[in-house]
Amino acid sequence: MRRRSLIAAAGAAALLLAGCANTPRQDAGTLAIGKLTTALPDGVTLLRPARGAPQLVTAQGQARTGQRASANDAQTRFLVGSISKWIATVAVLRLVDQGRLALDQPVTTWLPELPPASRAVTLRHLLSNTSGIPNGVAQALRQDRAAIEGSRITPLEGALRYGTGAPAFEPGSRFDYSFTNWVIVGGIVERVTGDPFQQVVARLVLQPAGVRDTGFADAAWESLPHAALAYAKDKTTRKSSAMPPMVAASGTVYSTAADLVAIADAVYAGGLLSDRARRELLTVQHAAEDYALGCRVREIGKNSTKHTVVWNSGVFGGYKTLLAYAPANGAAVVLLNNTDIEQAEQRETAQKLLDALLQAR
Known about the structure:
The protein is of the alpha+beta class. The chain contains 13 helices and 13 strands. Pfam families: Beta-lactamase.
């Protein structure tokens, strides 16, 4: 099955880019894509050379093993880890566009229960992981992991319980990739809207983007149609992670490759956000990490061939995911994996595929 899939992928790659102009550089890009698609890791891969162009979706490996074994395919849903932060940020920016939130207001504007020292922390600091608020969730996990992973408390409850530490450094001066930043983001959204965070994201982002296979995982996640299970590298040992609701903004979204691209199209080329909000989403806040708001933004290529790329990666147990998207023309690479691939390997594969796509334009 894998051999048939790879042969089909190589042929589809050639068809996908058959319309490219016949120049040496473009031929090199097309040839590179054909070669790369014959050696893809297990999971689902989506390639698109430009907005409006056909998408190539290929699948390798198993979504599930054992008695209910099923192969990965274009409809397979994966947990996408920290790509959830980008989706959460889009929801926040929609609320900013509506005048209900402001990026540079103190978080105590909406959560006055937080300590006075948190008045120096803005919503922008949370979304860029530069708040300095101690990672109370991580501290609680070290003390009693089972209790935290089994908790059903909401983002608002979690923010008021675990986000109460005074900033450990001047907000905006350092980068700290902290769960707690995102628990507080979720709590602010719940306080402002009066609705559960997951419902707000569905209403403001997922429904307008027209996606049907994306949502927030809960205890029933594995029973959903087309849900991939996560495995260790031996592809037989199950890996799983609990999903307390309070960390929804940080990493509990599930999606498909096509849905992730549809969301990106709605964000960067549709009417989902104002021009100002899109600029905020693409503005790097911490240069050493290429981190903007909820995602990384990188410049790839040189001089006239330079491209701005939104680079989103995620880890959740054995799930490893990556979305690379060029807002200017919609070139996209998505890699979804459920066998605990090394992130460095996944990143290298995505970079090669994206370089080839951009060369083949």
